[in-house]
Amino acid sequence: MAICQRLTFVAVNLVFFLPAFAQEPDIRSFAGEAWYGVYMNGEKAGFSSSVFEVADSGTVKVVEDVTFRLRMSGVKQDMRVVTTREFAADGTLTLIESSVDDTGGKKEFRVTVEGKTMTVRTRVGGNETVTTAPRPQESLADTLALERFVRSGPAVGASVTYRMYEPMYSTEIEGTSWVVSITERLLDGTPTKVFEIKSVLAPLGVEQTSFVAEDGTTLEDSLAGTITLRLEPKEIAMNVDYANDVIVANAAKLDKPLPDARTRESVTLDIHGPLAKEHFVEDGRQSFKQTESTVRFTGKRIAADAVKSVPLPITDTALLEWTKPSMFVQSDSPELAAKAKEIVGEETDALTVSSKLSEWVYRNVRSTYSARLTNSLEVLDTMEGDCTEHSMLFIGLARAAGIPAREVAGLIYAASPDPGFYFHQWATVWVGQWIDVDPTFNQPIADATHIKLAEGDLLEQARLLPVIGRLTIEVVE
């Protein structure tokens, strides 16, 4: 069984949205570094450092470096994400460099800002792309916004806004922070005001809670109650022993196995936890009903002979948007196109094409646990991975074959390591209607136990952050 861990990278970037240094009138006094322990649902999972540098010329460099050390069903996994931002002496943004180093290699993102234009270069899966767009609005003032806000001594209810361009999502994210409470703590033996700050990151709707000392030092950041950064001495922050098994820790366990999970006609579940309406993805296979105390989920099996398949090619322009290449789904690459043609041959029935691609991925991709920022080309090269790798390769092949396809994330029932619902990724494709396909389990139509909570790219899947590891599920007989 393979479980999706791709959302870790979303959390890594978003948790650093708020700055971590105290501001003084002389910007050179910012220079220094801070270390944080990284925790997932209360368990130590890694460490990070934040470095603020000011050159003699007045230019500023801010470096965020985070390392995750996790287990995935006993398998050790390391991930490192480094983001560098550079600002001119007048505070204008000039450069963003971001890299993700994982078991699949390094992915690189570089944004160069000149005048009113930015140039974005990405290298993912050995595929390099270059695009241009209007410059983002972000400046050094946004990086320092929270410190300035706290140092001004705001009252409860006061707020501030700021922006951050994220090349991995190809979008500029806006944040709004406001003071929830002000308390006094002893820090190093000195009474110090500590501000509890709530933040919302648009367009995600993800909440972040921060505790910031009156000098602007961030003591703790918690993103959606899932990822927490805690200020610690360097040697304590770096003390990580791979104790956090993210697959087991984040699952919604059951007290007994679910009979006939893969073949049952339907399943009814009561889900407890912080589900919101944006997680209620309803279609012909699943539905949600909100009550005062729980969310009732109903999933059912869709028979293949009930699907009205269409012949290829598909000509609907709205649907064809989901055949286009993206940063992580390089469906225009010759390698993916050739492999899709090899698998499909002359077949033109959309459902049959989808089923052939799904079965080929299932039979040829070796199942391993992997914490990585996945893309279709990389999986075609390595031919191994967990549910994320299976689904991303399938989506790349499906789009290359002319079938609209997009990512899906949520939960699925599995009997091991313990009976329960585990976070998982699969795909949805249009073959005359949208159907869910799970190549990890060789399901041309996903079974009734798949609980779809998000559809779309990495940014859309970020909406799952508030629920990871925080759901409990009961089977309704």
Task: Explain the overall architecture.
The chain is α+β, with helices and mostly antiparallel strands and about 475 residues long. It has two domains: about 5-245, no CATH class; about 250-475, C8orf32 fold (Roll), CATH 3.10.620.30. Helix content is about 15%, strand content about 40%. It has helices spanning about 5-15, 140-145, 145-150, 235, 245-250, 315-320, 335-345, 350-365, 375-380, 385-400, 460; strands spanning about 30-40, 45-55, 60-70, 75-85, 95-100, 105-115, 115-125, 125-135, 160-165, 170-185, 190-200, 205-215, 220-225, 225-230, 250-255, 265-270, 285-290, 295-300, 365, 385, 405-415, 420-430, 435, 450-455, 470-475. Helix 7 (about 335-345) crosses helix 10 and helix 8 runs antiparallel to helix 10. The model is unreliable at about 1-10 and about 15-25 (pLDDT under 50).
Which secondary structure elements does this structure contain, and how are they paired or packed?
Layout (H helix, E strand, L loop, with lengths): L6 H9 L16 E9 L2 E12 L5 E13 L2 E13 L5 E10 L2 E10 L2 E8 L2 E8 L5 H4 L1 H7 L7 E8 L4 E17 L2 E13 L3 E8 L4 E6 L3 E5 L2 H4 L8 H4 L2 E2 L12 E7 L13 E5 L4 E6 L16 H4 L13 H11 L5 H15 L1 E2 L8 H7 L1 E2 L1 H14 L4 E10 L5 E11 L3 E4 L13 E5 L2 H4 L10 E4 L2
Parallel strand pairs: 19-20
Antiparallel strand pairs: 1-2, 1-14, 2-3, 3-4, 4-5, 5-6, 6-7, 7-8, 9-10, 10-11, 11-12, 12-13, 13-14, 15-22, 16-18, 16-25, 17-18, 21-22, 21-24, 22-23
Helix pairs in contact: 7-10, 8-10, 9-10
